[in-house]
Amino acid sequence: MEPIATTKWLKEHLHDPNLIILDASTEGSADGSKKSDRTEMIPCARWFDLKGVFSDATSVFPNTLPTVAQFEEGCQNLGISNHHKIVIYDHFGVYSSPRVWWLFKVMGHKSVAVLDGGLPEWKAQGYKTVPTMGANYYKGNFKANFQPELIIKLDDVKDNIKHPDFLIVDARSSGRFNGTESEPRAHLKSGHIPNSVNIPYQEVLDGTHFKDKSTLKDLFNQRCYGKKNLVFSCGSGLTACIVMLASNLSYSDSQRIYDGSWTEWAQSS
């Protein structure tokens, strides 16, 4: 399955019994610039509660990867099984959906795609929506095939500074990266991990869509100096996945995320 799906493709496959559509919308962005009332959804979609069900609530850091057992149970309750193809979207176009794409990759599920343009593009094409509502589903049998190599931890980052191996790509704004703009989490200093490079996630998007592959390839070549052994970071591990997916579309196949991201690094350095 290709990493992204078009709204036209989804409309044509909407009632495929082997397809599950997940609404991964969050109520808003970390910096407060995006808000969603979550009153409507694509027909047949199921709400994927990224914050409440599919993040580790015991972690001191936001958006932390859930345990394998937690992820399996959440997927099974949504009626997901290993044979299903999955398309993920969100209400902002491309924002939280790549994070969910990455979660499925970490859990070893290959047939997963992000809806390019998300709900805004679906509506722009004149396709209908339905009111958001809860539902009960026949329990799925999803079982994970955990891929720990996709998760980078604090010690890995510290070791990489001493013995450079991978290049960290930071998806935060240039102001936060350069230390000239405050972090949205008031207790954190701004700045960046030594030797990292900056590609703000907005720069890989054209409105609610990913930019074309040629433009993305040029962007990554320029900022990453041709290096393709990449690890992606941001404030909390969410927008890092947007830049990671853009890289996967055009430049590097690395799907590694520093899950603690700047929130962890700033408090430990």
If you had to describe this structure to a student in words, what would you say it looks like?
- The protein has 269 residues and is an alpha/beta fold.
- It folds into 2 domains: 4-146, Oxidized Rhodanese, domain 1 (3-Layer(aba) Sandwich), CATH 3.40.250; 149-268, Rhodanese-like domain (Oxidized Rhodanese, domain 1, 3-Layer(aba) Sandwich).
- The chain is 29% helix and 15% strand.
- It has helices at 7-12, 68-77, 97-106, 118-124, 154-162, 174-178, 213-224, 240-250, 261-268, and strands at residues 4-5, 19-23, 40-41, 45-47, 85-89, 112-115, 130-131, 151-152, 167-170, 197-198, 205-206, 209-210, 230-233, 257-258.
- The strands form 5 sheets. The protein has a 5-stranded parallel sheet. A 3-stranded parallel sheet has the order 10-9-13, covered by helices on one side. A two-stranded antiparallel sheet has the order 3-7.
- A hairpin with a 2-residue loop joins strand 11 (205-206) and strand 12 (209-210).
- Helix 3 packs across helix 8 and helix 7 packs across helix 8 (240-250).
- The longest helix has 12 residues, at 213-224.
